[in-house]
Each structure stands twice: as C-alpha cells, then as structure tokens.
Description:
- This protein is mainly alpha-helical.
- It is 40% helix and 6% strand.
- It has helices spanning 2-9, 28-36, 65-70, 96-122; strands at residues 59-62, 80-83.
- The longest helix is centred in the last third of the chain and has 27 residues, at 96-122.
- The two termini are 23 Å apart.
- The model has no long low-confidence stretch (mean pLDDT 89).
Amino acid sequence: MAHGYLNYFQDSLAIIYSAGIETHGLNPGAVSIMNEDGIDITFHTSNHVDEYQGIEWDYIITVCDHAKENCPFIPAKNAERIHHNFFDPSKVTGTEDVKHAAFLKAREEIKEFCHNFVKEELVN
C-alpha cells in the first residue's frame, strides 16, 4: 500500500521500490482497499530486499517493527532511515466487515504518512 501511495503522491520525483524480508505475494485485502481509493496495485510484486543490492538509496523506510528488527543491513552511505510501525490488517480475523475495517484503518494511516513524506521530504 505504501508503494502505491508513494507513487501516487509524487509523479517523477523518485523511483519507488518495495521489498520485504519475506515474500508472500499481494494480499487481496490490500489490493481491494486500494482499488476503493482509485489506486491499482495489482501490477505490484512481492520482492525480497536482497533483490535490490547495489542501489544507491536516498531513503529506506521500514513499515513494521518486525521488519525494522529483522531486516538485513542495507548498506547505504547517504540514505536517511525512517521507521513507522503501521497497523497490520492481515493479522485481523473475523467477519468480512471486520477485516475490511482493518484494511481501511491501515490504508488511511499509510496514506497520511506517504502524503506527508512526499510533501516534507521529496518536494522540499
């Protein structure tokens, strides 16, 4: 979701990569909730952080405590490291309405963070 919003809020200011310490494919709940906000992430992929060795990063953003604590060290001399632990809707169980509400909550948190990041870091 963060990848989708970072691309949405900036046109050509940065190249956005998304990776994790595990790959699971796209979460259908994330795809659906982003579609509700007019953002199509169906073409995104689930990539492992090791796939991006050698890239000169400007920013490295971790989006959950688990990733921050377990992510392999990414050598980046000048990269600013930013961490925000977002609510993880994929862990929520219950009815479809409960799950939808969880993804909506996460989407809105991520959307606000990405909007502020682009406005404060990339535009200035």
